[in-house]
């Protein structure tokens, strides 16, 4: 498990202090895949450097697998870091070493004996389906294969936590799906905790159990996928299950509604709208898979004077409605 409490990081600057992290409180549950999302400058890179102990926080604590690493002296911090594996965007393999030797490198640094290293490397390469490429060099591998080597190397010291920094941003769509599937499979088989830093909603949808949105060094929204996507009108809800396009034509007042199909069936959701009469209609709708969950979103056109009634009826049917036009909460649409 990872716990951040009051985490603050400030960088002194001649032009004034730069606050990179501003009081982060966050818990990542053991054995989950947790996504950290946010725009450039939101604090994602600083957060991951604090998680690995490469940055000391200005205030607050960082606890990883029961050890408060933010309080450790440097000699103990080096040992604690072995419990955290790191997967990089650009992999950073050593070109002059074979694949097996790249995976073995963290074990060499840790002082593991040669025979034990060889056995562990063979085990890891089999785990990522690259046992047959042990003697190859990085230049002979595809981008996806290189990332698999990076994952194997990150797992070499049997970490409790795997940190993935934009692990698929340099890969094509099919390879991305394969790598994300591998990450979840490894979590299931090894029981490790995974933190994925990403700017891609598709990565969160396909891989994560929970997600946190950072803005300007602060947590704006956080929770399980089911929790965040059913918060109608919220930034993560709209990013993960986008508001459907609204067809052209005259509109009066839009009500946006979201629902999880494990709680409300699609038939119930549409039936609730149909029961409101001919002057209320669904303008657009979508139902998308979100891991083991399916989430639906409706945009309903209603007369202004019936807005409150429509919202109340949809809520009674188990949906989470919000009277707002698509993409512009709280304003009227002519």
From TrEMBL:
The keyword S-adenosyl-L-methionine does not apply. GO terms for molecular function: ATP binding. It comes from the Bacteria. It holds the Pfam family ABC_tran. Signal peptide: none annotated. PANTHER family: AMINO ACID IMPORT ATP-BINDING PROTEIN, METHIONINE IMPORT ATP-BINDING PROTEIN METN. Residues 2-241 form the ABC transporter domain. This is ATP-binding cassette domain-containing protein. Keywords: Amino-acid transport, ATP-binding, Cell membrane, Membrane, Nucleotide-binding, Translocase, Transport. The keyword Translocase applies. CDD domains: ABC_MetN_methionine_transporter. PROSITE patterns: ABC_TRANSPORTER_1, ABC_TRANSPORTER_2.
């Amino acid at each position: 498990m990872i716990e951040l409490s009051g985490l603050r990081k400030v960088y002194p600057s001649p032009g004034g202090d730069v606050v990179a992290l501003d009081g982060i409180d966050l818990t990542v549950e053991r054995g989950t895949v947790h996504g950290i999302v946010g725009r450039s400058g939101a604090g994602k890179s600083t957060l991951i450097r604090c998680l690995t102990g490469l940055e000391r926080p200005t205030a607050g604590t960082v606890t990883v697998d029961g050890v408060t690493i933010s309080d450790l002296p440097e000699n103990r911090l080096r040992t604690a870091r072995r419990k955290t594996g790191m997967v990089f965007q650009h992999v950073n393999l050593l070109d002059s070493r074979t694949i097996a030797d790249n995976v073995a490198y963290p074990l060499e640094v840790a002082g593991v004996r040669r025979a034990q290293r060889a056995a562990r490397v063979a085990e890891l390469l089999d785990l990522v389906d690259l046992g047959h490429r042990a003697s190859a060099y990085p230049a002979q591998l595809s981008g996806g294969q290189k990332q698999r080597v990076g994952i194997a190397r990150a797992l070499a010291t049997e970490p409790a936590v795997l940190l993935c920094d934009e692990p698929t941003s340099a890969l094509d769509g099919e390879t991305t799906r394969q790598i994300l599937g591998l990450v979840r499979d490894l979590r299931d088989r090894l029981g490790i905790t995974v933190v994925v830093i990403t700017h891609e909603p598709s990565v969160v949808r396909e891989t994560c159990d929970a997600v946190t949105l950072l803005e300007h060094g602060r947590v704006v929204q956080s929770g399980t996928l089911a929790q965040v996507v059913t918060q109608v009108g919220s930034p993560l809800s709209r990013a993960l299950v986008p508001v459907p396009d609204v067809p052209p034509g005259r509109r009066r007042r839009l009500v946006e509604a979201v629902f999880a199909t494990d709680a409300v069936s699609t038939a119930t959701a549409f039936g609730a709208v149909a029961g409101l009469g001919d002057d209320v209609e669904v303008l657009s709708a979508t139902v998308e898979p979100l891991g083991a969950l399916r989430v639906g979103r409706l945009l309903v056109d209603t007369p202004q004077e019936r807005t409150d009634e429509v919202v109340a009826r949809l809520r009674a049917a188990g949906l989470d409605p919000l009277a707002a036009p698509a993409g512009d909460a709280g304003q009227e649409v002519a």
